[in-house]
Amino acid sequence: MKLIETIKNIWKIEELKNRVIMTFSLLLVYRFGAQVVLPGIDSTQLGGFSSNFEGGGIGSILNAFTGGAFANASVFALGIMPYISASIVVQLMGIAIPYLQKLQKEGESGRRKINQITRWLTIGICLIQAPSYLLSLETLGVPRSAYMMQDNMTLFVVISTIILVTGCVFAMWLGEKITDKGIGNGISLLIMVGIIATLPQAFLQELNTQWTDGGGAFVVLIEVVIWLVIILACVMLVMATRRIPVQYARRTATGGYEKNAFGARQYIPLKLNASGVMPIIFAQAIMFVPAALGSLEQGWAKEVAALFADIFGFWYNLVFALLIIVFTYFYTAITVPTNKMADDLKRNGGFIPGIRPGTETSEYLDRIMSQITLPGSIFLALVAIFPAVVSLMGVTQAWALFYGGTSLLIMVGVAIDTMQQINSYLLNRHYDGLIKSGKNRKQQVA
């Protein structure tokens, strides 16, 4: 009943209702595009190609991120990953290139220029990935007879490259429109919807396997309970905060501050995982690089690709975990402006008890962030590699991907972020939120 009442409240707020409708509409467009096969390919002959992306392997993650579009040879086969890769490159370059550093300090105008640079870089990455994908289709299981232009493959590759690049740019546009006109982070929502689209099939495959091999419903029930416990752990990781007490001096009637007179104590909530799901997405994008090396002719490149081909293997998960820890520190450093927080506190007459305002406060906040980021990043890395652990216990690889890892962390993180945005709209209009319980807040205020 509480959920139904909350949905009714969402529908009462015109702006929120329009944003929710816009979000679902654009997500449906993205899911529809994921089923549209590239012109020139017979979709009835893609069975062998699709089977190559079931279970483990880099291809299965790529397919999950694109919601099956990769295995469908769809116009959205590249998904949104080229944009994620471009974002990583731009942010890393921002550390070393003065021009990008200058843009980062210019506020909204600088952010727009950085976004434009990211878009152009996305197109450049697509122009590399699209031909590579098309030229590997036959190797991965698309029969020669499936190509309607098999006598002119060059023309097919050129036309399909244009379509794939356009599809990626359109997906990028959809994500940005969801962020601007809808609810939640559009890019993250596109990834989450793609992942959720593969979940029912993975669960049914696990159910069928356990039923056939004698594990039965009891084993499946235990697996579901463990899965729910891991989801709870992910929620705790996303929501956990360290509260820093702050004292504010009491203002006088003239707008100044009374000496030795203090108002109510407040808190600065520093999140244990301030970077959200971005370290997972960044690390996963980097882990696609070794697989790409397999297309090179050099022997060392093929050895590296073979070493990291198994996403449940030791070396893959070791490097993946280390990258997550590194990116967690990196992304936290660029998204949590401790200097600005200290300046805002000082400007508003606030201070942390026992810490001098200004530089000392900034250093204190930075030290606290470093201390809480370490356990947060390690826990994030452990959850990310947990699918490799459950796969050793007999869980099918397709279903194991949802026991933590990139898939589950993105689903939980994006879902919580979206719910918090909806919650803010509801609470601002004096309605019950999705997270906090209670009746219509108008009655409480009255």
From TrEMBL:
The chain crosses the membrane at residues 20-41, 75-97, 117-135, 155-174, 186-204, 216-241, 272-293, 313-331, 372-394, 400-419. PROSITE patterns: SECY_1, SECY_2. GO terms for cellular component: plasma membrane. It comes from the Bacteria. Its main location: membrane. It holds the Pfam family SecY. SUPFAM superfamilies: Preprotein translocase SecY subunit. Signal peptide: none annotated. GO terms for biological process: intracellular protein transmembrane transport; protein targeting; protein transport by the Sec complex. It is a multi-pass membrane protein. Keywords: Cell membrane, Membrane, Protein transport, Translocation, Transmembrane, Transmembrane helix, Transport. It is found in: Cell membrane; Membrane. The central subunit of the protein translocation channel SecYEG. Consists of two halves formed by TMs 1-5 and 6-10. These two domains form a lateral gate at the front which open onto the bilayer between TMs 2 and 7, and are clamped together by SecE at the back. The channel is closed by both a pore ring composed of hydrophobic SecY resides and a short helix (helix 2A) on the extracellular side of the membrane which forms a plug. The plug probably moves laterally to allow the channel to open. The ring and the pore may move independently. PANTHER family: SECY/SEC61-ALPHA FAMILY MEMBER. HAMAP family: SecY. NCBIfam families: 3a0501s007. Component of the Sec protein translocase complex. Heterotrimer consisting of SecY, SecE and SecG subunits. The heterotrimers can form oligomers, although 1 heterotrimer is thought to be able to translocate proteins. Interacts with the ribosome. Interacts with SecDF, and other proteins may be involved. Interacts with SecA. Belongs to the SecY/SEC61-alpha family. This is Protein translocase subunit SecY.
